[in-house]
Design a protein that fits this description.
This protein is α/β, with parallel strands linked by helices. 38% of the residues lie in helices and 18% in strands.
């Protein structure tokens, strides 16, 4: 804590509480009026890249406060005082107002580094293999992907124009992949993003216990820090 104080010039307060770890973290966050939870995640063994620590997993799935998950490099926790620089932020969107809930928090967080932003829309290409004997089906799929790609490009262009008018350095990208989650992770690696920021939402009566399948895949598979924001209205 002293290192963080000295490096960042921040006021830092430490709190020790007893009780279930995940629930206690969220209780303290509520008491303090926290705007953001920052947690280091870790896994063990050969599957560590696809496994969250149980505490981070529980907090991310239930928190009403945005959560920034930092993945350690190897077995050592990151030095939160010096290691994190958010100069390029990737923000996946799906065209919905729920997904756009992440924008305010992502822009605010990246503003400390004068970050640039990439808005990404992943168009899903069906994974089923189309038989060469069904050319009409293949053409229908290709046409559908072209239409969705054009619609995605138009949507992102509108978002980019709006944000640039606010002085944000931003571009839009459309990617085609057979999995939205894997497409996001791949694109983050390709553009060397420093952070992925996305909104999460569940459906039905168990919404508080789920991230949503795309967000879950990204949180578990991405090498970059991931900012998860509870979708407004979810």
């Amino acid at each position: 804590m002293d290192r963080i104080r000295q490096h960042a010039g921040l006021e830092v307060e430490t709190t020790i509480r007893g009780g279930p770890i995940g629930e206690t973290i969220q209780a303290v966050a509520a008491e303090q009026g926290a705007d953001l939870l920052v947690m280091s995640t870790h896994g063990r063994g050969p599957f560590s890249r696809t496994w969250l620590g149980s505490v981070a997993d529980a907090v991310t799935r239930t928190s009403e406060v945005p959560v920034l998950l930092i993945r350690p490099d190897g077995e050592e926790a990151p030095d939160l005082a010096t290691d994190i620089e958010l100069r390029h932020v990737l923000i996946p969107l799906d065209g919905s107002t729920l997904a756009e809930s992440v924008l305010e928090t992502a822009l605010s967080l990246g503003g400390g580094w004068d970050a640039r932003y990439t808005l990404l829309r992943v168009v899903r290409y069906p994974t089923q293999t189309v038989s060469a004997y069904l050319p009409d089906t293949a053409r229908m799929i290709e046409e559908k992907v072209r239409e969705e790609t054009a619609a995605a490009d138009e949507y992102l262009s509108g978002q980019v124009t709006r944000l640039r008018e606010l002085g944000v350095t931003v571009e839009g990208r459309v990617s085609v992949a057979n999995s939205v989650g894997r497409g996001i992770i791949r694109h983050a690696d390709e553009v060397a993003a420093d952070m992925i920021a996305l909104a999460s939402h569940g459906r039905g009566g168990v919404r508080r216990a789920v991230l949503g399948s795309v967000a879950d895949k990204v949180v578990r598979g991405a090498a970059q820090p991931v900012l998860v924001v509870r979708a407004t209205g979810d």
